[in-house]
Amino acid sequence: MAIARVARDEDLPSARRTERLADLKLLVDYRDQLVRARTQVANRAHADLAAIRPGYERAIPKLLTKGQLAKARCLVRGDHSLRAELLRRRLADIARLDRSIAQAGKQIRVAVQRTGTTLTEIPGVGPLIAAKILGEVGEVSRIRSKAAFAVMS
């Protein structure tokens, strides 16, 4: 009896679409992990810089851009201490994480476009926010009402 009901119900999401949304959640979670890892490495790099070059933060308040990372590398150029070597490795890790975050962002944009969602038409909702919503909520058609959606949250 249940199989007959499923066969008649054309509003059920396809397995492929559900899998696509689950993959989107995995990708968003992966990007979030990369961002957390980058923050941890940048915090450690700031601590190393403070120990090696006290007052450096006046010249380099953050380690967000390629230029700021390059300035930080310049501060320890020629310094052969272990702390300076570890800092150089951390700065390289930050650059690698930046590339991975950017790559994940591109994948998210493409994946969101493939869903055909209109979420990105809402002011302030870009591909990343749309991906987070789609990944967490899943197939919207399975939710009966606004009240049912509110209970999910």
Describe the structure in your own words.
There is one protein chain. The chain has 153 residues and is an all-alpha fold. It has one domain (2-152). It has 6 helices and no strands. Helix 2 (15-52) crosses helix 5, helix 3 packs antiparallel against helix 4 and helix 4 (82-115) packs across helix 5. The two termini are 32 Å apart.
What is the N-to-C order of secondary-structure elements (H for helix, E for strand)?
HHHHHH
Please count the helical segments: 6
Largest sheet: none
Approximately what portion of the residues adopt beta-strand conformation?
Answer: under 5%
Overall mean pLDDT score? 86
Question: Shape from CA axes?
Answer: elongated
- Residue share in helix: 55-70%
Poorly predicted parts = 1-10
- Taking all Cα atoms into account, the compactness measure Rg is 23 Å
Count structural domains.
Answer: 1
Instruction: Give the total of beta strands.
Output: 0
Question: Distance between the terminal alpha carbons, to the nearest Å?
Answer: 32 Å
Structural category is mainly alpha
Strand and helix map with partners:
Layout: H1 2-8, H2 15-52, H3 66-75, H4 82-115, H5 127-137, H6 146-152
Helix pairs in contact: 2-4, 2-5, 3-4, 4-5
Give a summary of the structure in a few sentences:
By secondary structure, the protein is mainly alpha-helical.
Characteristics of this structure?
single chain, 153 residues, mainly alpha, 6 helices, 70% helix, elongated, disordered N terminus
